[in-house]
Amino acid sequence: MNLPLFMARRLYGDDDRRRRVSRPAIRIATIGVAIGLAVMIVTVSVVLGFKHTIRDKVAGFGSHIQVTNAWSAAMTADNFPVCIDDSVLHVLEGVEGVSHAARVAMAQGILKTDDDFLGVMFKGVGPEYDTRFLRECLASGQLPLFCDTATDFPLVISKTMADKLRLSVGDRVYAYFIDSDNVRARRFTVAATYQTNMQRFDDAVCITDIYATQKLNGWAADECSGAELLVGDFAQLDETNRKLAGTLRGTTDAHGNIMVPQTVTSTYPQIFSWLELLDVNVWIILALMIAVAGITMVSGLLIIILERTQTIGVLKALGARNATVRHTFLWFAVFIIGKGMLWGDIVGVGAVALQQTAGIVTLDPQTYYVSEAPVELNVPLVALLNVATMLISVLALTGPSYIVSRINPAKTIHCD
Known about the structure:
Layout: H1 3-12, H2 22-62, E1 65-69, H3 70-74, E2 82-83, H4 86-93, E3 98-112, E4 117-125, H5 132-136, E5 138-141, E6 154-158, H6 159-165, E7 172-178, E8 183-194, H7 199-202, E9 205-209, H8 210-217, E10 223-224, E11 226-231, H9 237-248, E12 259-263, H10 264-267, H11 269-307, H12 309-317, H13 322-358, H14 365-368, H15 379-401, H16 409-412
Parallel strand pairs: 4-9, 6-8
Antiparallel strand pairs: 1-11, 1-12, 2-10, 3-4, 3-7, 3-11, 5-8, 7-8
């Protein structure tokens, strides 16, 4: 039988209303632990949701890895073609970690209506292109079936572009393409609009058939701007990129061009550096919340020990050692922490679930790239927060529990 645990249960279950000091102290300590854990769960869930949402939006347009002409990678303002046929795509998809590969062809142009014009980047995609992200961001209309052998000049533009140019689904708009020799005009039909709330994409990128952009650039059927690759595990992005670079090392395309891979994190370093800064904020908040929970527990335990000095004196007079009494009050604190953690889990997980279903907290999409606060509940991480809160709180209470060794039974035992 565990004597300290038994006595702690009896003390915790004691509903002596004469103890006017320790009862509020226990409540305050419980509330402190609950608030600290709830805030930690909400904070971690929001940061995870925010990072993954922004990451998926950037990868939705830029993919996880881009394989391009080495000259294009070195001079991003120019668009050098590279030959990628079905056999090359098969090789790229065969690299460990790569889940999908698709060719894309870029062309710069100008959309013009009777009242306004807008410089944009035309991104040509073929039938193998993964359109799941576009479907998730679809604002109106339906995505066309993208083709690589012919084109009806369909166009998917952002809602931002549609508002600026006063265009709607079904409208036809002229696009002008300028090269060193002449100006060419093509008439596109707006098939759908999308909205990502990522200004760098919504202001500049529209989607059409890869056949159209290849012809506009004067490229052959097997020439494109590059291949966009998706990886199965983003955490292994750098490792997959190294394997891909090893596969491509020393190989060239049909025209002798060198192909190089480039990750989305290196293509958009500002965005991912900003997301990494969020981790620092999380650690600061976690440290503050655990400190709050620890301080409230320490003060609560000291109050409980001081109010029960007579009980401690009796236990010592009956032969209880200091270690036994200390362990009793540590178990007492564990019961308080456990109750606080239970309420903290209920409040924290409940708040995350409510935001996921109702989207109560809204944000300015121009600033945060999302219209409502994204949250992601990670059950293993929540469990880890619970374990860390319990361990750190108990360790913080170990020192104050030694105060029982200074209590003299002869001075504390007296008759009322």
